[in-house]
Amino acid sequence: MTARVDRAILEFDRALRAVAGLQAAERPSPAAGVQEGELDAATREHAAALMRVNHVGEVCAQALYQGQALTARDERTRASLEQAAREEADHLAWSAARIRELGGRPSLLNPLWYAGSLALGIGAGLLGDRWNLAFLAETEHQVEEHLRGHLERLAPEDARTRAVVEAMRSDEARHRDTAIALGAAELPPPAKLAMRAMAKVMTTVARRV
Ligand SMILES: [Fe+2]
Ligand SMILES: [Fe+2]
Description:
Elements: H1 2-20, H2 41-71, H3 75-101, H4 110-126, H5 129-153, H6 159-181, H7 189-208
Helix pairs in contact: 1-2, 2-3, 2-4, 2-5, 2-7, 3-6, 4-5, 5-6
This protein binds fe (ii) ion (2 copies).
One fe (ii) ion binds near residues 61 and 84.
């Protein structure tokens, strides 16, 4: 019982930190030691907007992983989800820091994104580990594709933003492989399409608000 209460408090603390952008990173930012490029105002603004979208993605990742770790039945699965969640916490901190450096601000709707994703994560978790992992594998796949797109859109001279996005992209690819190795099912195509549609709404709104 006490362990449960402790865990609930820990998760709640993590939720507040995610939403407030106060997450501390375990690993140093990939931008550390990378020289700041000569960026004009429009380039900075564009990069800040893209990073705001990525930050929202990472807020959602926190909630998704939290929801799924809460419902995962298999101990090994839960441990892997928790490891990935710690890496997502790094992404959260790195992208928040880069937004600040670029002079932008995180999405005002973060509490909303968080709550929606937590519900989704718990929902996926309730379907059982195989489907839970399937949802995760597909999410990571779509996020990786999305980050790849950002690498094409970011200015070549914006080396610091690019370093962060590239490191996140490579982690997401690994998270997907982990989910598959743990026995993820393959989602039916309509589910994948629905996820893309939802992601589209989220990224479109987050670019502005
Ligand atoms: Fe991430
Ligand atoms: Fe990930």
